[in-house]
Amino acid sequence: MRIPAHTVCTAIRDDIVSGVFGPGGRLTxxxxxxxxxxxxxxxxxxxxxxxxxxxxxTRRHAGACVAEPTEQEAADLLELRxxxxxxxxxxxxxxxxxxxxxxxxxxxRLGQERARRGQGEDLRSLGGWFHETLxxxxxxxxxxxxxxxxxxxxxWMYVVEAPARPVESWAExxxxxxxxxxxxxxxxxxxTAVHVDRAAGAHxxxxxTLQPAVNMESGPH
Length: 221
Known about the structure:
about 220 residues
C-alpha cells in the first residue's frame, strides 16, 4: 500500500516539532524512507512541502536539513498569530455553523470544569482544540491553513506555560463563543485579541531550537 506524501509530511513535521530531528540536522531521503517504511518518492514530496512551510531548508553540499529559526522569526510568529486569531474569530461570528457552536460550547464547559479542578494537562489539549475549532468555524481555507501551520511552529519554537489563572482564561473562551454565537464579529475580534495577547506572555523560547538573529550584512565566510 502506497502511503501518501501528506502522511509522511505529518510524520516528519511531528518529529521536528518534538525534537527527534534537531535544528540543523540533515534529513536524508534514504534514512527517512527507512524510518517511515515508505519509498523515497513521498519523502521527497514531503520535504518540499516542509521547506515551503519553513521547517526544512536545503543547503549546498548537505541537502535537506531542519531549519534553524532565529529569535526574531519566533517573535514575528507570535505577532502574526495576534493578527490572525482575532480575524478568524470575526469571520467565525459571520460564518459559523450550529455544529461549530455545539463543539465550542462543549469545549468551554469541559475547560471550565477542568480549570476549577486544576487539571492542567487536560486544559492544554482543550485549549488547542478550542482555537482549532474557532479557526475551522471561520470557513476560510487559507486562514485555517495558516493558523494550523502557525500552531505547529509555535509548538516547535516555544514552551507554553499553563495560564496563571485558568478559570479566568476559560471565562474568556466562553465570552468569545457568546460573541460568535450572537454574530457579533467586532466583539469576537476584540475579545480574541485581548485573550491571545495575554496568552503570549506564557510563551518561553526553546533554547535548543532558536538561534540569535544573524547580521546579514557581514562579509563572506
